[in-house]
Amino acid sequence: MAEFNYIVRVIGKDLDGTKSIELALQGIKGIGQRTGGLIAKDFRKENKIPANKRLGELTNEEIKKLEEVISNPDKHGTPTWAMNRQKDFETGKNKHLTMNDLAFTLRNDLTRLAEIKSYKGLRHMWGLTVRGQKTKSKHRGKGGVVGVTKKDAGKPAAPAADKK
Predict the structure, then answer these.
(1) In DSSP terms, which residues pair with 13 in a beta bridge?
(2) Higher confidence at residue 158 or residue 67?
(3) What are phi and psi of 20, to 5 degrees?
(4) How far apart are CA 124 and CA 130, in angstroms?
(5) pLDDT on residue 128
(6) Does 144 have pLDDT greater than 70?
(7) Level-2 CATH architecture, domain 7-79
(8) Which of 41, 46, 3 is nearest to 20 (CA)?
């Protein structure tokens, strides 16, 4: 029997080896419950791995194959609707982005929307709601900091008034 790894590195992220493959994959940014289950199912079907096998029981070769399925889920049978980047703006292809690629792409999308001054881009830039929510009573002071300013912090306290 191969050794058990309690921490497994998959796509640059340390995952808990004691969890099942589906649950462990949810620790990767860009993979939720549904996508993790679909990717794990495709991986198990291709490599004939039992459903109860934990992530820490996989060999290094199997982990490489799992990383390939995560990187290119469309080539391994994952449906298009489960991908988080359908019809990419630049390439027009369906992708599934994870970790830093996902954050970088989202930031670029918001920057592009702000540059062309679209409604969504401006609302994101101003820190307001984007999808039509009401803003009369909620969303006030979003991101405001409560605390002592530097100027006030330097002042000595006023002496207490004497009561006689």
Answers:
(1) 10
(2) 67
(3) -70, 165
(4) 7
(5) 85
(6) no
(7) Orthogonal Bundle (1.10)
(8) 41
Bridge partners, residue 89, by sequence: none
Whole-number Cα distances in Å, 3 to 7, 8, 58, 66, 155: 12, 12, 9, 18, 63
For the chain, which residues make up each domain, given as ranges? 7-79
- Give the DSSP letter string of 5-47: PSEEEETTEEEETTSBHHHHHTTSTT--HHHHHHHHHHHHHHH
Coil, strand or helix at 85: strand
Whether pLDDT at 49 is above 60 = yes
Q: Tell me the two tokens of residue 43.
A: 């991986």
- The three-point CA angle 83-75-40 to 5° equals 65
> Residue 154: which pLDDT band, with cuts at 50, 70 and 90?
low
What mean pLDDT comes out for the span 52-73?
Answer: 89
What does the pLDDT read at residue 34?
92
Residues 6+ apart with CB under 8 A from 40: 20, 21, 22, 25
Q: What share of the chain is helix, strand, coil (3-state, %, to 5)?
A: 45, 5, 50
